[in-house]
Amino acid sequence: MPVASRADVVAMLRDAGFSVSISQWAATNLRPAPGGAAGRMPAGGAASATPLTWMFDLEGIKEMYESYEVTCLYDLLEAPPQGLRLDFVKAEHSNFRWGGSDEARIVAAGHRVHLLRGAGHWVHSDNPAGLLQILAGSFGLQAKKFGQAVRAGR
Known about the structure:
This protein is mainly alpha-helical and 154 residues long. The chain has helices at 6-15, 20-27, 58-70, 74-78, 100-108, 123-126, 128-135, 143-151, and strands spanning 30-32, 52-54, 87-91, 112-116. 43% of the residues lie in helices and 10% in strands.
């Protein structure tokens, strides 16, 4: 970092084994490097008039991760508020795999675990149609009808 274009970042991520959709999403997190001119980046990933860098708040990411590491929500699972139904999506190919005793504890508490086939960590990009099938019921919609509307662009 910095880099000359979004296309360079997409290519680097693709070379590292990330999917096209994840690589393109990651490139949306670029901004003009400090000291560079602010404004819109050229369309199509062309070289920018100013170098680009990540816009992540690394301190914020560190704080969120530390909070994640020390937070345990099993009390909520075992005694949810009345009327709350919890469903979990488990990505088939995620590098962060859970199952065994965690999954058994979730199911034993009366909740559901849905396996999203063909998905890694980025479930919304890896298998959006499958994720929609899982989530549509919680939106009060018929998954098939809603999925057809989404695919038709409505």
